[in-house]
Design a protein that fits this description.
mainly alpha
């Protein structure tokens, strides 16, 4: 089976939805409270998924699939940067208050309107959690890196 651009975009979207599902299970089943940077990354994952699926659905329009792949790759890089910042800077701070992630999520109203998905319930220092011996932020950083590579692969592939 060859990986076409459409299949790669679908794979990217499914990986993003799976990442958010794992985060929600961690939060609601295992009571691991998310910080502002965790929530921002959820938003980036969901945005990537929407962009990819729009690229697949609107693929008949010229250049849309490639545009979706490019936007997904760029969003993945932004997610990579957010995860890196969370791991290297924010996780060492007593509070994420007034950081970019906190201001963005609060000003967007997402935390108030969809608190089960975008609610900020912990500081970044308190949200440091390991999964299989590796911090969540590192898992997210690795996944965003993979998504960026897949986005570039979809950009370079034919339909």
């Amino acid at each position: 089976m060859t990986l076409t651009a459409t299949r790669i975009l679908n794979l990217i979207a499914l990986l993003c939805v799976a990442a958010v599902a794992v985060a929600l299970i961690s939060q609601h089943v295992f009571d691991l409270r998310p910080c502002a940077w965790c929530v921002l990354q959820r938003l980036i994952y969901l945005t990537i998924a929407v962009v990819c699926w729009l690229g697949v659905l609107l693929a008949r329009l010229p250049g849309i699939r490639r545009l979706a792949a490019l936007v997904a790759a760029c969003l993945s890089v932004s997610g990579f940067i957010a995860a890196w910042y969370q791991y290297t800077v924010a996780a060492k701070m007593f509070s994420c208050d007034l950081t970019f992630a906190d201001r963005f999520i609060v000003k967007s109203g997402l935390d108030a309107h969809v608190p089960w998905l975008f609610g900020i319930f912990a500081s970044c220092m308190d949200a440091r959690v390991n999964l299989l011996g590796v911090e969540y932020a590192i898992w997210s950083l690795a996944l965003f890196g993979l998504l960026a590579l897949l986005g570039l692969a979809a950009l370079l592939r034919r339909a």
